[in-house]
Write a structure and sequence with these properties.
There is one protein chain. Helices cover 89% and strands 0% of the residues. It has a domain at 36-136. α1 (2-9) packs across α2. The chain has three helices and no strands. The chain has helices spanning 2-9, 26-159, 162-183. The chain is an all-alpha fold.
Length: 184
Amino acid sequence: MKNVTDSFVSLGHWPSAGSFGFNTDILATNPINLSVVLGVLIFFGKGVLNDLLDNRKQRILNTIRNSEELRGGAIEQLEKARARLRKVEIEAEQFRANGYSEIEQERLNLINSTYKTLEQLENYKNETIHFEQQRAINQVRQRVFQQALQGALGTLNSCLNNELHLRTISANIGMFGAMKEITD
């Protein structure tokens, strides 16, 4: 403090040469100049600086508020997405389980259907074999009967003469006539 008051006192001791001069004593003039400049800056710049700081503070608070709102929305969306993911995973597991059971059921149905088809084919085969056997037996019977008939006719033709032949025909006609009377 003493230096500051000394510098004011020393103003009175300056030599007056009738002109304006510079004080080259740096230690005496700098604190005075700095105090004047700082006083002017504080007096005039205080309002502007307060306004700038208030504006900056409001922008920072708005940015923080907006980021909190965005963070809250993001957390909400994340929870919704997680819930949807859990739901989809449960549905996928159900589809997978149902798919496996349906595949197993279809496999069993296919096996049963194949067994039934094979059984039907076996039955058709057996029926066809039986039918073919019956047809072959009937064909053999017909041939045997034809051969026996031809042999009997050949024997009858060689053994029968006309008189015996006429008597046999008359006897057969008589038998047919008696049969007709019985049926009527």
